[in-house]
Structures are given as C-alpha cells and as structure tokens.
Amino acid sequence: MVRSYAPAAPPAVYPERPAGFVTFLGHVFTVADAEIRKLQHDPVELLMRAVQPTLWLVVFGQVMSHLRGVPTGKLTYLDFMAPGILAQSVLFIAIFYGVSAIRERDMGVLQKYLVSPISRVSLVLGKAISASVRALSQGVIVYILALLLHIHATWQPLNILGVLLLIVMGSAVFSTFSLVIACIVKTHERVMGMGQVMTMPLFFASNAIYPIVLMPGWLKIIATVNPLTYEVDGLRALMVQGGTSVYGLGVDFAVLLAFSAALMALAARLYPRLVT
Predict the structure, then answer these.
(1) C-alpha closest to that of 90 among 137, 160, 128, 151
(2) What would the pLDDT profile of 66-111 be if each residue is shown by its tens digit?
(3) Which of 37, 90, 91, 112 has its CA at a distance of 20 to 30 angstroms from the CA of residue 10?
(4) What span, in angstroms and rounded, lies between the C-alpha atoms of 259 and 40?
(5) d(CA 30, CA 126)
C-alpha cells in the first residue's frame, strides 16, 4: 500500500514592520515608558533629590548673599544662584544614569533590547527622555524653594516652558555622556567613580555660582566649552526677573542641541559594546 503525503506547507513569512518616523517615535516611547515606570516603585528617590538643592540654596546661598564681592548685576545673589543650582541638580541626576545601563546588562535586559527591532538611536533617546523626567522634578523643587526663599522667579508660561526645555536638553546631554562612559568602562564602580570625578569640575568650571569674569584665563576657556555653562546661562535669562543671557538664548539652545546630538550618536554606536 502506497501512502501519499501532502507537501509540507512553507513557513509563514511575516512582513517586516515599516521603518519610519512613527515607528521610531513608538520605539522611543516604549523605552522611555519602561524607564519612567521604575519611578513608581521608588517614589522616595524624588523626595531624596530635594535635599541637595535645598541645602545649597538655604545654607550656601544664604551665607554668600551677605557677601558683596560677587558681581551679579541687578540680581541678588540668591536670584543669581537659583538657576545654577537647578542646573547642578540636573547634572547630578543625569551624570550617574549610565549605572542603570550596567544594571540592565547584568539582569539580561540590555541583551533583549539589542536583539529587538528597536534602533540604537531610539534606545538611547528613550533613555535620555526618561532621565529628563527625573530631572524635571528638580525644576518643581527649585521653583517651590524660590517661593519660600523670596527669590524673584519669573512665572510667565513661555519662560517656564523655556526652563523646562533647557532642563530636558541639559539632562539629555549629561545622561548620554554617562551612557558613553558606561560603554567604555563597563562596570558599576567605574561609572560611579567617573561620575564623581566629573561632577565637581563641570559644576565649578561653569557660571553656576559665580560669573565667568571672576575666573582666571585658563578656567574661562574651559567654561566656554562646558555645556553646563550654556544651560545655566539660558536658565538665568528665563527663570529670574532681570536675568539676561550672556551668550544669547539662541546660542544656549544651539550648543545644548549640538552636544545632545553628538553624544546620542556616539552612545548609539558604542551601546552594543556593553555586552561584549
């Protein structure tokens, strides 16, 4: 008896998802949403972040406001200092963001990201956006402190929108910089060490707590290539009454955008090295 067998059906072929801007945004949102959800499990972190700007403004700011040797123009020293402390708080949150990438690698999450159809750029951009959400909480804290300390903040909607945009851009710069560091050093301890080494030079080699005109010549050169300088410059113009931008708001935004784009491209290129 001869049995006939029907030919095996060919394997199903599923069309690839179209690559486009909408798909790219969807991937970015997916990554950012996964990172932001982590805050729901640890909301105390946001409260702990309030300690640092409070200490700087209440203690350091109150003491330094009695000194007359810092040329702050028409601004009081607290007015001058508040945007710098906001930028500093954003820096301190973002500069250690690479630690989360190391944790994801150790948990196997990063490997899943890398074999998914999510592009490396959308992966890095999504993480930068999630870091910005954490940083935005610092803006709320500093504005509350401004009310309590009688800092002459500007409450016009467009100004506040500009402040929020600068926070997002500044956070994107330093969080992607931290990802680049993580891709190079590849260990939790080294990322923490590099972050601690970098925060103080970035902070003090900027216009956050004193004008650049007080700096020696060599430090002025460093300050002019420091992206934190341009973030503070823009925040000072938009956040406080009577504040002005030394470089111009257009230059401030352009410099931060250029740093963000360059560091995101570099982080996207180096990201696969974390698992090798």
Answers:
(1) 137
(2) 666 667 777 888 999 999 999 999 998 888 888 888 888 888 877 7
(3) 112
(4) 30
(5) 8
